C-alpha cells in the first residue's frame, strides 16, 4: 500500500508576544522589540513573514500577540486577514500561544503543516532559510516535530543548544537532547564536537502530531485547546478562550513538549540567524565605520571607537569615547557601557518599582 499523502500547504505562525526589555528605551510596554527596525529599515515582525517569500499566502499566516499590541502589529502586516490575528488573553509563554494557533489551524485542516517563528529574530539569508524549511517540512510529514538548529560559529553562552543524534536521511537528524545555556568551557566543547546547534525556537510539525504531543506531555493544554477549538465560531467563544487559556500551564514549548518528545528532529541551518538580543547585537546586523562604531543616528564623531549610537532626531556628537551605547529617544537618554547591554532589564525593573518613573516604561 502506498504511503498516505498529506497536504503540503504551510501555515506559518508568528509568535509576537515578547516584551524586549533589553532594548529599552526604544522598546516599551506599548511598543516592544518586534516592532522596531533593528536589523533593517523594516520592523523585525514584518521581516519574519516577508523572508518566507512564496512559501505561504497571507491567508495561511497567523500572528499571536497581546491584545494591546494588535493594532500596531496589524499595520505592519496589513495583508494578514483579520481573523488570523490571535490575541492571547494573558502572556503565558510559547506553549499556550502555540496551542491557541493550533486550535484555529487544526479546525480548518487537522493535518496542516504548521511552522512556528519568533517575531524578533533576524535572518540574513532568507533563501537558505527556505531550503531548510523545506527539509523540515519533509520531516514533519513523516511524523517528526522538526526544529531548525543554527550551526554555531562561536562558543555562545547565551543560547540553549540542541544535540543531534542519528541521521534521518539527507534532511536532518534525530534530536538526542536539548541542553540549557552552558558556561564558557562547556560551550567551547559543544562547538568543537560539531554535534550541537543553537536553538532558535523555529519548529515545523503537522497539527495532528503536535496535538498528540500536547496530549501526551501537557494534557491540560490539549484539553483546553480542544475546548477552544470546539467553541470557535460560536457566540460564547471569547469567554471559552478566556477561561481555557488560563488553565494552560505557563511554560515554553521547549520545556513542555520538545525536551520530552521522542519524535524530535533537527535540520542544520546556516542562515545568518541572529536573535538580536541586546543593543550589542546591532554590531552584527548593522554596518560599522572604520573605527567599529555603529551609527543609527546623525553623528559627529572624533576619536571614537567601538560605540553604538541611536537617535532619530538629535545630532549625536562624541569625542574620545569608547565602547559606549548611547540611545536618544524623545523622553529618555540612555548611556551605558557596552559590556552591560544584557543588564538593561535591571533598569526596567527599577522603573516598574518606582511609580513616578512608570510613565517611562
Detailed description of the structure:
- The protein is of the alpha/beta class and 361 residues long.
- Helices cover 30% and strands 25% of the residues.
- The chain is built from eleven helices and 17 strands.
- The chain has a five-stranded mixed β-barrel with strand order 6-9-7-8-10. Strands 12-14-16-17 form a four-stranded mixed beta sheet, with no helix packed on it. A two-stranded antiparallel sheet has the order 5-11.
- Helix 1 links the parallel strand 1 (10-15) and strand 2 (62-66).
- The longest helix has 16 residues, at 126-141.
- The termini are far apart.
- The mean pLDDT is 95.
Summed up:
By secondary structure, the protein is an alpha/beta fold. The chain is built from eleven helices and 17 strands.
Pick out its properties:
30% helix; 5-stranded mixed β-barrel
Class by alpha and beta content: alpha/beta
Rough outline: globular
**Percentage of residues in strands:** 15-25%
Series of H and E elements? EHEHEHEEHEEEHEHHHHEEHEEEEEEH
Q: Could you give a short account of the major beta sheet?
A: 5 strands, mixed, barrel
Strand order of the largest sheet: 6-9-7-8-10
Radius of gyration: 21 Å
Rounded to the nearest angstrom, the distance between the terminal CA atoms is 61 Å
Poorly predicted regions: none
Please report the total strand number as a whole number.
17
Helical segment count: 11
Question: What's the pLDDT, averaged over the residues?
Answer: 95
Helices and strands in order, then pairings?
Blueprint: E1 10-15, H1 44-50, E2 62-66, H2 70-76, E3 85-88, H3 94-108, E4 113-118, E5 122-123, H4 126-141, E6 145-150, E7 161-168, E8 172-179, H5 184-193, E9 196-206, H6 207-217, H7 219-231, H8 237-245, H9 253-258, E10 264-269, E11 273-274, H10 282-285, E12 294-296, E13 299-302, E14 308-311, E15 316-319, E16 324-328, E17 333-337, H11 344-353
Parallel strand pairs: 1-2, 1-4, 2-3, 6-10, 12-14, 13-15, 14-16
Antiparallel strand pairs: 4-9, 5-11, 6-9, 7-8, 7-9, 8-10, 16-17
